[in-house]
Each structure stands twice: as structure tokens, then as C-alpha cells.
Design goal:
Blueprint: H1 8-21, E1 31-34, H2 37-46, H3 52-55, H4 69-73, H5 77-80, E2 84-87, E3 90-93, E4 101-109, E5 121-133, E6 139-148, E7 154-164
Antiparallel strand pairs: 1-5, 2-3, 4-7, 5-6, 6-7
């Protein structure tokens, strides 16, 4: 069968429901993430970055390279598995099969953000944006995340795109 155990009509019905229901929903919970000096430096070095402001000694006041946001930006996806709601009088989870979820893209916005430093403890929250399906009934969705440090300062704004294969939603 083309879509595993779920019929095409049920997939279309679920897609239509989710397109109307999910946008604007807060993703339950938060993700907490500790920024460690050795991980920040190792991550920068794996990209061939040699700028001392990213790989210098800890006491020099290094900051995380912009690519470091990749380390924490997909962690909120796990919280999506906790989303549940009522559809047609029955309670169901948003993700019916977590293995069909795929991270598709990230866009980072640093405007109004402070630099990430070793020892920072980040708190990441998210909200669901636009939802759509393509011609193969793969569901796509925007996830808008904000990451703040332990002082409540904004360190990164992320727009992620996730996709779920048919039968997974």
C-alpha cells in the first residue's frame, strides 16, 4: 500500500484538520540547554573556524559561532510528540509515528540578540506557524522558536521547517 496502514482519504482528512487547527499553537513545555565551552569550541572547529573569538581560551570571553544554534534548534521537536487534541470526538496525538518526522530547514535571526557564551543556560520555547501539504501528501510546518539565556535575554530566534511523511500525522 502506498501509505502504509493509513488510507489516502484519512491522510487527506488529517491534513485538512491540522492545517486549520495547529497554526498559532504553543508547543508544550520548554527545552533547557547548557552551553559548554568545550562543545562550543569543538563545534566551531568542526566547521574549520579559526577565529579566536570562537575558539580562544575560555578566559578570553569567547562567544558561540553562529552555527552553534544548530546544536539546540531541533531539540524542541521532541516536545511536538506531546501535542494531543480531539478530532472527530476522539483524542489523538499530533504525531502518530515519530519516525516519520524530519527536520527540513532552519533560518536564524540574530537581530536584537545577545551573544551566546560558555556557561549560558538556554531556555527554548516554540510556536507553530503555517502548515501545508505537498502533492505527495507530505505535511510541512513552520516552527518559530525563541532561545533566551539565564538572564532572560534573547540569544536567538529560529524559524524551522519540519515535515512529516504520510501516515505519521
Amino acid at each position: 500500500m502506498l501509505y502504509d496502514i493509513m488510507e489516502l482519504e484519512e491522510i487527506k482528512k488529517n491534513a485538512k484538520f491540522l492545517i486549520n487547527y495547529l497554526p498559532g499553537m504553543e508547543i508544550p513545555g520548554i527545552v533547557k540547554f547548557r552551553c559548554r565551552y568545550k562543545h562550543m569550541v569543538a563545534f566551531a572547529k568542526c566547521f574549520g573556524i579559526s577565529d579566536p573569538k570562537y575558539i580562544g581560551p575560555e578566559e578570553s570571553g569567547i562567544i558561540a559561532c553562529p552555527a552553534f544554534a544548530n546544536v539546540f534548534s531541533a531539540k524542541l521537536y521532541i516536545n511536538m510528540a506531546t501535542i494531543s487534541f480531539e478530532q472527530n470526538g476522539k483524542k489523538r496525538g499530533f504525531l502518530l509515528d515519530f519516525s516519520k518526522l524530519l527536520h527540513a530547514a532552519n533560518e536564524y535571526d540574530w537581530d536584537g540578540c545577545v551573544k551566546i557564551r560558555p556557561g549560558d543556560f538556554l531556555t527554548i520555547r516554540g510556536k507553530i506557524g503555517k502548515i501545508w501539504v505537498n502533492e505527495k501528501m507530505r505535511l510541512f510546518g513552520e516552527i518559530f522558536q525563541t532561545a533566551r539565556n539565564q538572564r532572560g535575554e534573547l540569544v536567538c530566534k529560529v524559524k524551522s521547517v519540519a515535515t512529516i511523511a504520510p501516515g505519521g500525522y
